[in-house]
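Lab notebook page, bench 4
Experiment: in silico fold of construct C2
Operator: M.H.
Input chain length: 340 residues
Purpose: comparison with the prior construct
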Amino acid sequence: MTTNNLGKLIHLKKICNDNNHFQMLAVDQRPPIFNIIKEATGKEYTYDQVVECKRLIASNLSHLATAVLMDPHYSISNILDNNNSKGLVITLEEHKFLETAKGRYSENINNWSVEKIKKAGGDAVKVLAWYRPDAEIKSIEHQKQYVQQIGEQCEKYNIPFLLELLVYPFQDDENHTTEYQEQKLKNTQHVIDSVKEFAKKKYKVDIFKLESPVDSSALQGDISMETEAAFSNLAEATNDKPWVVLSSGMGKESFYKCLELAYKNGASGYLAGRTIWLDAFNSYPDIKMVENGLKTDSINYVNKLNELTAKSAQSLETYFTNGFKIEDPENFTKNFGGFE
């Protein structure tokens, strides 16, 4: 990073722990929480019910996190007081997306922007971009331009750009779904090639939030050489940019194994949600039971993840040490540029 990106480094440092690892909790989910409510009550979700679910998660688990990922519509506007971590990552993308037979098209939440996230006190801008290197050309170009424009805005406002990439099934795929869940029988090379594309300098990504390069079923039992190689290739595709792992709602044992493999290959932490807290909501709408599940099983699991992270994740200590070195410090005020 250049000296003019010093603000990005300060924000990134804020969302790490003292070991320079990321342990981030996601409560920005929208469709997954909508589904919890609808399936449990047999009725359409209400705004207040969604907020209640997010508040339960943040108030019971955020003290174990280095940062919490929040959306602006339900989270930022309601539960900031329940964030007991020191960091705040804010979502930019709309959960709804345009889908064609061979592509998906992402867009920002209406009336929301990088500038507003910076003004609201966010420490990073999170964007989920659906991407497949074999999608229709129009979709590929749209997604590339979308991500590049956000990267440029993040550089302008000196806020870290956290990019989440997810491959997805086409409409004629037997496993097609528009739900926010891991694609069944995903193509490993699609995952790796997607990361390679957005690791290019022009996208200005500061940290990747990445899915497992293999189906979660491959993370059970003995790990094959192919799976080991997939994680190694994923790490190489990041072009030495910091990266964390997302959970995709996979089982707890699978995600733990996923983290072990990711840390072995240089990941610096996790940004996870459903795998941590979804089981507790099996008792919804019994709030007391949900809270009990969060305070027991979920907390125990997060502690287990944090112990693994402390032991095995890639520390960003050197990354920060090098980044905070100011050349020609006597002329810092002269050389440091403002917003452009």
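Observations: The first helix runs from residue 6 to 14. The chain is about 40% helix and 15% strand.
Next step: discuss at group meeting.
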